[in-house]
Amino acid sequence: MTKLMVDETLPGRLAGLECPVELCDASGRVVGAFIPAALHTFYDEMEPQISEEELNRREREGGGRTLDEILADLEKRA
């Protein structure tokens, strides 16, 4: 992962946060997100809400639509 050095005020502003936040530039445009280190272990320990067997069944079943079909459907709705 690439590291970006921040000015000395940012760590103090981020310290103690308990939820993810968006990082914005001076105009308010979102440039990224910050997830507090304490949440990393929370997210790392989360398990998928679907079993391995169900994932395998869906993969074997196949089906679905091609990207071209999805894009054509979206163009009709626009």
What does this structure look like?
The structure is a single chain. The chain has 78 residues and is an alpha+beta fold. It has a domain at 18-48. The protein is built from four helices and two strands, in the order αββααα. The protein has helices spanning 10-14, 37-44, 52-61, 67-77, and strands spanning 21-24, 30-34. The chain has a two-stranded antiparallel sheet with strand order 1-2. The radius of gyration is 20 Å and the shape is flat.
Structure, briefly:
The protein has 78 residues and is of the alpha+beta class. 44% of the residues lie in helices and 12% in strands. It has a domain at 18-48.
Tags for this model:
4 helices; flat; two-stranded antiparallel ribbon; 2 strands; alpha+beta
If strands are numbered along the chain, what order do they take across the biggest sheet?
A: 1-2
- Written as H for each helix and E for each strand, in order along the chain, the element string is HEEHHH
- Tell how many strands the DSSP assignment holds: 2
The count of helical stretches stands at 4
Beta percentage is 5-15%
What is the oligomer described by this structure? Answer: single chain
Q: Could you report the average pLDDT, rounded to the nearest whole number?
A: 86
Helix content: 40-55%
